Amino acid sequence: MINQWKICRVAVGIGAACLSTTLFAAESKSISEQEWGIAAMYRTGSIPFNTEGGDQTVSTFVPMMYFENDYVFIDGTEGGIHLYESDDEKWQLNALTRLRFVDIPKSYQNINEGDSADFGLQARYKMDESWHIDTEFMTDDEYRLHGNFRVSGEFESGDWEFKPSVTLRYKEAEFNSVYYGFSEYGGDRVGAGMDVNIGIDARYHVISNLYLLGSTSVTRLDDNAYSSSIVEDRFEGEFFVGFGFFNDKTKAPKSELTNKRYWRVAHGWATPSNIGEIFAFESEKDKYNNQLTSLFYGHPLTDELFGLPLDIYVTPGIVHHWSSDVQSASTEYVAAIKAYYTIDWPTKWRFGVAEGLSYIDNVTYIEQDEMDRKGYTASHLLNYLDFSFDVNMGDLFNAPELNNMWFGYSLHHRSAIFEKASQFGRIKGGSNYNTVYLQFDF
Prior knowledge:
single chain; 442 residues; mainly beta; Outer membrane phospholipase (ompla), Chain C; Porin; 2 domains; eight-stranded antiparallel β-barrel; 8 helices; 21 strands; globular
């Protein structure tokens, strides 16, 4: 029911949006503190279908990123580009991509290749400082259309923030047939209809950059969707709980950050070893010598976290996987949030870690081989991790002209969080590449 292009919309859309910040960053020599966040959420959704095993709910782990400036935005399960804003800031037009969860028993989620991602246009009208209206025209990869009319509010009280919303969603017949009648598997043909969703998001400021997050919503299905022979419940519910790191709301944003933008060029070699084996210096060489070359841009978000000197970046990247005897060339797109901690003894060293999303247009041999052995359908979208260690070349060689250059090692890692994430195809495994890189601050 769900193919690779649906999930591609999330990864490519977010990656392209983040990468465009490079062009606009060049307009200013200094970077102010950005609006950003990273969170770990656990989602549980009710299953409205009549299932053989009697499953009533399905759960998934959802890493989330947040970033917004005048040009692009990433907001948890959605992201996009600001295309237009009126002079009075009341009207806004956005290109949008949003992850949409398909709640079926988890034993079927790998067969159906995970959840769906929709894309389209969003027109937003700000009624006042608290309320706005969104009108959205959306589609999946097969151009099954649906539209949303949403009224949302934003309220703050002390350490609490609340975002209530009411959404009317019109779904054309083909959309209803595929997602509520499973017509692609010989199920019902379902007519068009309009459902309604009521929800609320909440955020609680614990201390400094730490927040607790939660949200819940309920959807009442339209008559046609509810009449499908496989639909058992009229109402669908979901809730998210988790925590995240965001801007400290008790402090004014910094007008100028100490960390600079960067470009990072890396080359790496695949290994069948897992992270534990790699960090224990027991990494095996890939017998087919599969390799990659990557280019990443780093855009500063802040230069401290919990009062500690941590340099935080949003870092989109593009990766070329070279052809070999067992694979054709492929392209990987990455969007992530990365943190660096610097040690100034006896020279400047840095440790870094990044978390985000990775989409690849053709699954590499090192991943496909593992999926075949484990009996999974491979996922093009996976969670992305990067662990790095580098040294400042200017300090190392006592050459001030090289102070903007770093040389280091990074582990390029794609995985699916141990079958805990439906959006990654409910699989276990992935790929690892040992890479070396040069990074240039500017």
